[in-house]
Amino acid sequence: MNIACHIRNDGLYEQVQGTLARTGLKCDRFASDTALLRALKQRSFGAILVDIATGLQDQESIFTWLNCRSDDSTPVVVLSPVYSADLLAMTLGAGADEFVTKSIDPTELIARINALMRRCNRRNVQRVIELGGYVLDREASSITYRGEPIIVTAREFTIAWLFFSAPGVYVSRQTIGNAIWGVQGDIVGRTIEQHVYKLRKKLQTGPDRGVYIRTAYTKGYRLELNGDERAMDGIDAHQEYEESLPAEQAE
């Protein structure tokens, strides 16, 4: 699968290209948005990556191009050097599908690109996940463990789906916040902690089931199977805080 890249910074392009190559994705680079638009009329791509600068006025041509897209449903990921609420709103409002900062972890970038491509190609969308005895059904928003139903809320199911669809990959609080509330994770950080606390309790994760939801304060959360001890690196007292939360706080 080829990914179209309009990334002007050489260092960033090399980093993205290397990250994509490790997962079997090929990166085709275009020097201008004009060249990219011409290629889109002739070829199909799995996704489009575009980097932008900090100034809104500098991006006028990019926003115009996004706004003018009609019959092209290829998902677009915009890379920004910094987070800006105004820039995020303008980018998504113009038609981009994802907005990430250039400091994003490479693993998370790949996870987001893959998720976008699955959503835009409904025939390949994963509807059921079976992992560690758990079965997550996307259509029914339901979870079972070895056939026994686990009652979860819609938000808890969304968080569980994020974890189970990318085992071993850290899912940041920003990603969770965007998926559920459409805002940055740090804005609703405590609420996320409470939801994860309740999800752990309902799933009964731990040594008995061999499935863990680990916390690393600077990285977020990730699902692990069989208690991979290597993942204990970076686990801090923040997880102890979450595990001590009373259940009634996690509404």
Total count of strands: 11
CATH topology of the largest domain: Rossmann fold
Helix content: 25-40%
Radius of gyration: 19 Å
How many helices? Answer: 9
Principal-axis shape equals elongated
What is the spatial order of strands in the main beta sheet? 2-1-3-4-5
CATH class category name of the largest domain: Alpha Beta
Task: Encode the helix/strand succession as letters.
Answer: EHEHEHEHEHEEEEHHHEEH
**CATH 4th-level superfamily of the largest domain:** Response regulator
Regions with little confidence, pLDDT below 50 for 5+ residues: 229-251
In total, how many domains does the architecture comprise? 2
Structural class: alpha/beta
Q: Your description of this structure?
A:
By secondary structure, the chain is α/β, with parallel strands linked by helices. It is built from 9 helices and 11 strands. The protein folds into 2 domains: 2-124, Response regulator (Rossmann fold), CATH 3.40.50; 128-249, Orthogonal Bundle (Arc Repressor Mutant, subunit A), CATH 1.10.10.10. The protein has helices at 10-21, 33-42, 60-68, 85-94, 106-120, 154-164, 173-180, 189-203, 237-243; strands at residues 2-6, 26-29, 47-51, 76-80, 98-101, 128-131, 134-137, 142-145, 148-150, 211-216, 220-225. The strands form 3 sheets. A 5-stranded parallel sheet has the order 2-1-3-4-5, sandwiched between helices. A hairpin with a 2-residue loop joins strand 6 and strand 7. Helix 6 (154-164) packs across helix 8 (189-203). The chain starts with a strand and ends in an 8-residue tail after the last helix. Residues 229-251 have low confidence and may be disordered.
